[in-house]
């Protein structure tokens, strides 16, 4: 049937249809419908049929300085285009929308978004009814497009672009529901559903909160953490927040990812833990939640309303949900809402169960401040109490059962609190359940968790521990429990993966280690399966530099603890320093009680500067402030954490160290390290006494000394240091001798080396004065420790004898493994710099007498192991990774002080002790035996982590890349009980072969000397960093179409291993090269030249959806025995239709 409607009638019908379709509470017309309506030909078509002066109107509507396209649609929607001329007679344009109209006697006055004053001149002589119709019809056309920003301010009446919404639930101070937005109005947010939290506010108090919390949410949005729900966008609607009209209600909307699995309380009521399988997951999630609170604490943020309803369940890869804290950044709303609940002044109810005892004090403070609750601050320990309550309920569910949790919840549901404020004790119901839990966890490792909750979390505020300390203890409980209960494939080694994967594994953060079993991805971050980003999924977006920097700082955090047992033994045999005078302090600093638990203090940088000439501590604080990059108008805030003062603005990093003078026997400084802030002189007896004490303790208490027996293979040559002269000795058939090994940077060839023409001379005497300074100092350290022999590579290997070099280089791992101790010249970038004397100025310090007679020294924090050791040039060298990993113990001479690294941790010259689970790999005195307690997944993670690290290190000669790690590879092969060649392990062949280049760079093939051949399938054949495919355990079916064999089995001329494979033809399009294929080299060949070897495919998926893990190969320019030879070209992630059915057996060289 022919459509007889005019274009104007079609327009009106289209508007009716759109408004009928899109009215999920707020009617709007989507931008996809509006865009065609404001096209010039569309508007012209309507005007020509309805208006006589259509040409002039059309020109006015499309005037670029005062466009009126939306105005045209609004007037047309009213059905009366005859009045369009009146709206366009002045300068009224789309920029003035929306408008408000008021009737003043017979006149119509208008207020626009650009001009807040009422005026009667905008429309000319306009009837009230026409202006009113325009005002009412404008809203559907003004729905916002949310893009390129996080915050939006909408005028009252502008509709949200909601196409669907769920049932609203009242939650405290707000209502929450799920919504679907029109996709064209949120073009960059790829989430089908969002959680919408709506808050109504109007009072002055509430408006102030809104202003403050919006600023908080901007900060929270920058935090990346697996267990935090970050806001997607925020908007306010109503009056200007800066000049509000309290008589009119405003609205704030906060949008978050929607958790389809509900909250933690719902999970407990719907799920059971009959076989105990949820316990490892629970412990991992507990660690993760503490990590999240720790990160919030670092940025000076609290939650304020932690409860199971604010912990959401998102789908996780392991089948169990990932728990994420929501409502972060709304603490002021939580305080206000909770205070009203407790005072009974609001009809909106939510549980009071998790409120800590000190909230009664907050309530009194709020009342005494006449309701100005924006000035009432939550303590840092507020959230710890709430989390302790949640942990108790977690234990009730996991140990007493689902039914018992439901009974308990029913009893507590009448808004009872954990804390009985009248009796000043825990609620009777809670105490009864805790008693049941004590019986249920008797003889179980979970009793340690129950003890932790009772002793460190559900205690008075002053005794509550912070999130960092609780997390560290939880990690121990998790790891102990995991070792005895985790299934083999699920156990993961706590290692920091380098490159892109370390960001994924350690997000954000750290010391904020990603918990075991805390798997899952944020909604909206999940990529389609066949995507090379599967290799190295990043938890931190690559363009978020601030978040990456923060993650790096947090990830490399070392825990600082005292080592006073060792220190007291040391000083019992040492002369003490003469007493020190008390430092002069100002009144403000004199009032700080550093010896009190969790003491906090703050001050402005400008204030420190103004008092620095008369106060020693202010001077020290000013120096620290400037090093942190703070301006004079900024504030420095500290909190004591054991023996350090940590800066809150520096992500809770230590900035000052605390020492208890050993000359004063006092009990009030037990938190501080016994010792002095000043280092002993570089070659003083006191320094060597410390070194010998470290070695003696390690030998006798740690058991980390190398084995002493005649079967230990000694190095071919060693330097005998004697008392005054040195000489080179052949050690081939000699009995075991103690020796030290030097790890150092050459920085160009040393001035004196062993060569074929001087070795006989060196056997008699090595000219000491001609030695590089590093070698001279290493000899002095060896003599000072009373060790007879020293090994230095450039003197103990004949440098111009290639055969000798090859033989000794292959045994380098044994040299360092059998050394009594390694001397690491970490602070020296060349062989002539010297390393014994620190290269930084002595740290300034302050002495303060305590009320109990102790002497407290406060000094600048020097124990930055990440900066001193990990980032030192020595540890960027390829040869050094093997030296450090295989050394049983090492003296690291860094630019600030000496560190002793052994299997017991890292000990500092200033006697503090450092620990970091992610660096414990290099502390293993019998590397890598510590991994034997881990299962298959941990072993794979171990070698992948090591090889990724190694591939990023530097070489003077890149051709050393396959040689400088031979010792490590041999050791790994022995422990893993499999053959290892060229960075590939036979038992884990497919995973070993699925290495690839990173996204941002191609690899370059290395040119080796004649006679040295490295297979193309080994990453050792290339220059550049590598990463490994992030493939889940137990979810891949590995093929048998790739076998590692010796070349001699197939080719008489071959002397290195080859891969015997089944090669298949591939069907690839150009688009596949972008998102399914990763070629190793830039000149890796075109589509037609590539063939594939299927190494594995996903289990438990339909054939067409299975992801296939493929090794890409191509024909070599060279031939092997007259036959076509194939070499590796890269890796790919393909679907079934990309892979041919037939195959050909070939060899890859």
UniProtKB/TrEMBL annotation:
Q: Residues in domain Protein kinase?
A: 163-477
The name on file for this protein is Protein kinase domain-containing protein
Question: Highest taxon of the source?
Answer: Eukaryota
List every stretch annotated Disordered.
503-535
Q: Which InterPro entries match?
A: HET, Kinase-like_dom_sf, Prot_kinase_dom, Ser/Thr_kinase_AS
Family matches, as Gene3D superfamilies: Transferase(Phosphotransferase) domain 1 (1.10.510.10)
Record-linked SMART domains:
S_TKc
**Molecular function via GO:** ATP binding; protein kinase activity
Question: Which ranges are annotated Polar residues under compositional bias?
Answer: 503-512
Recall the taxonomic lineage recorded for the source organism.
Answer: Eukaryota, Fungi, Dikarya, Ascomycota, Pezizomycotina
């Amino acid at each position: 049937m022919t459509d007889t409607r005019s274009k104007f009638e079609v327009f009106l019908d289209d508007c009716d249809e759109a408004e009928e379709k899109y009215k999920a509470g707020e009617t709007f017309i989507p931008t996809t419908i509006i865009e065609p309506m404001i096209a010039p030909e569309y508007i012209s078509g309507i005007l020509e049929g309805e208006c006589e002066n259509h040409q002039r109107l059309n020109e006015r509507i499309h005037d670029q300085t005062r466009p009126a396209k939306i105005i045209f649609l609004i007037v047309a929607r009213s059905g009366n285009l005859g009045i369009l001329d009146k709206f366009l007679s002045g300068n009224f344009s789309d920029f003035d929308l929306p408008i408000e109209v008021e009737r003043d006697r017979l006149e119509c006055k208008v207020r626009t978004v650009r001009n807040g004053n009422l005026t009667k001149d905008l429309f000319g002589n306009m009837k009230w009814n026409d202006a009113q119709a325009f005002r009412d019809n404008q809203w559907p056309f003004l729905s916002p497009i949310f893009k390129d920003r996080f915050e939006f301010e909408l005028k009252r009446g502008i509709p949200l672009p909601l196409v669907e919404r769920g049932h609203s639930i009242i939650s405290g101070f707000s209502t929450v529901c799920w919504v679907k937005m029109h996709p064209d109005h949120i073009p960059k947010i790829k989430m089908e559903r969002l959680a919408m939290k709506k808050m109504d506010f109007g009072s002055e108090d509430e408006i102030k909160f809104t202003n403050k919390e919006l600023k908080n949410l901007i900060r929270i949005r920058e935090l990346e953490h697996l267990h935090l729900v970050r806001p997607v966008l925020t908007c306010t609607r109503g009056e200007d927040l800066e000049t509000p009209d309290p008589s009119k209600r405003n609205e704030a909307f906060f949008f978050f990812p929607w958790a389809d699995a509900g909250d933690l309380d719902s999970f407990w009521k719907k799920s059971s833990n009959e076989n105990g399988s949820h316990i490892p997951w629970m412990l991992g999630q507990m660690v993760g939640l503490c990590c999240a609170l720790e990160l919030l604490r670092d940025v000076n943020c609290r939650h304020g309303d932690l409860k199971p309803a604010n912990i959401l369940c998102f789908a996780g890869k392991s089948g169990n949900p990932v728990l994420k804290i929501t409502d972060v950044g709304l603490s002021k709303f939580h305080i206000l809402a909770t205070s009203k609940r407790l005072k009974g002044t609001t009809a909106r109810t939510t549980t009071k169960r998790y409120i800590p005892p000190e909230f009664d004090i907050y309530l009194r403070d709020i009342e005494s401040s006449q309701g100005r609750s924006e000035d009432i601050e939550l303590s840092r320990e507020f959230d710890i109490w709430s989390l302790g309550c949640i942990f108790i309920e977690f234990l009730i569910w996991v140990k007493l059962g689902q039914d018992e949790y439901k009974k308990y919840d029913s009893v507590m549901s009448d808004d009872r609190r954990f804390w009985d404020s009248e009796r000043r004790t825990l609620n009777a119901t809670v105490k009864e359940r805790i008693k049941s839990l004590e019986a249920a966890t008797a003889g179980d490792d979970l009793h340690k968790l129950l003890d932790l909750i009772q002793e460190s979390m559900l205690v008075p505020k002053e005794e509550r521990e912070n999130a960092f300390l609780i997390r560290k203890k939880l990690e121990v409980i998790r790891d102990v429990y995991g070792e005895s209960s985790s299934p083999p494939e699920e156990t993961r080694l706590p290692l920091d993966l380098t490159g892109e994967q370390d960001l994924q594994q350690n997000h954000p953060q750290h010391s904020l280690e990603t918990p075991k079993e805390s798997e899952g991805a944020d909604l909206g971050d999940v990529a389609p399966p066949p995507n090379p980003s599967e290799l190295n999924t990043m938890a931190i977006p690559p363009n978020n530099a601030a978040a990456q920097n923060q993650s790096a700082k947090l990830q490399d955090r070392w825990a600082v603890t005292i080592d006073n047992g060792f220190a007291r033994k040391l000083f019992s045999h040492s002369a003490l320093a003469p007493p020190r005078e008390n430092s002069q302090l100002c009144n403000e600093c004199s009032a700080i009680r550093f010896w009190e638990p969790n003491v906090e203090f703050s001050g402005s940088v400008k204030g420190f500067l103004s008092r620095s000439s008369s106060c020693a501590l202010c001077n020290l604080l000013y120096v620290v402030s400037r090093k942190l990059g703070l301006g004079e108008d900024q504030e420095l805030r500290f909190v004591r954490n054991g023996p350090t003062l940590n800066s809150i603005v520096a992500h809770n990093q230590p900035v000052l160290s605390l020492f208890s003078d050993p000359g004063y026997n006092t009990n009030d400084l037990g938190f501080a390290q016994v010792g002095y802030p000043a280092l002993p002189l570089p070659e003083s007896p006191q320094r060597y006494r410390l070194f010998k004490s470290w070695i003696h303790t390690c030998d006798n208490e740690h058991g980390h000394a190398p084995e002493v027996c005649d079967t230990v293979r000694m190095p071919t040559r060693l330097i005998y240091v004697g008392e005054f002269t040195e000489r080179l000795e052949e050690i081939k058939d000699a009995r075991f001798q103690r020796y030290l090994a030097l790890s150092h940077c050459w920085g160009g060839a040393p001035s004196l080396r062993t060569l074929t023409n001087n070795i006989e001379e060196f056997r008699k005497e090595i000219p000491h004065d001609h030695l590089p300074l590093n070698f001279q100092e290493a000899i002095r350290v060896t003599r000072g420790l009373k060790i007879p022999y020293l090994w230095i590579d450039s003197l103990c290997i004949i440098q111009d004898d290639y055969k000798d070099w090859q033989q000794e280089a292959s045994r380098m791992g044994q040299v360092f493994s059998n050394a009594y101790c390694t001397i690491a010249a970490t602070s020296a970038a060349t062989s002539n710099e010297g390393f014994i004397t620190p290269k930084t100025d002595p740290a300034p310090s302050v002495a303060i007498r305590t009320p109990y007679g102790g002497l407290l020294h406060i000094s600048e924090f020097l124990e930055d192991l990440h900066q001193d050791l990990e980032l030192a040039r020595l540890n960027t060298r390829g040869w050094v990774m093997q030296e450090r990993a295989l050394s049983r113990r090492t003296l690291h001479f860094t630019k600030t002080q000496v560190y002793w690294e052994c299997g017991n941790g890292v000990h500092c010259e200033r006697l503090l002790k450092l620990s970091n689970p992610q660096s414990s790999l290099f502390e293993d005195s019998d590397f890598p035996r510590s991994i034997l307690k881990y299962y298959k997944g941990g072993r794979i993670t171990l070698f992948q982590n090591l090889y990724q690290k190694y591939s990023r290190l530097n070489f003077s000669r890149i051709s050393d890349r396959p040689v400088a790690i031979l010792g490590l590879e041999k050791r790994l092969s022995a422990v893993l009980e499999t053959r290892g060649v060229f960075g590939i392990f036979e038992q884990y062949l497919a995973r070993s072969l699925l290495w690839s280049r990173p996204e941002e760079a191609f690899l370059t093939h290395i040119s080796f000397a004649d006679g040295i051949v490295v297979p193309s399938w080994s990453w050792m054949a290339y220059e550049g960093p590598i990463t490994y495919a992030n493939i889940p355990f137990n979810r891949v079916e590995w093929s048998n179409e790739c076998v590692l064999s010796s070349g001699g089995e197939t080719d008489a001329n071959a002397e290195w291993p080859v891969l015997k494979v089944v090669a298949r033809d591939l069907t690839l399009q150009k688009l596949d090269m972008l998102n399914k294929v990763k070629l190793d080299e830039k000149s890796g060949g075109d589509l037609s030249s590539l063939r594939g070897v299927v190494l594995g495919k996903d289990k438990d998926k339909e054939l067409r959806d299975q992801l296939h893990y493929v090794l890409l190969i191509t024909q070599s320019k060279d031939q092997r025995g007259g036959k076509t030879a194939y070499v590796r070209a890269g890796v790919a992630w393909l679907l079934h239709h990309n892979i041919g059915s037939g195959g050909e057996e070939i060899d890859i060289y």
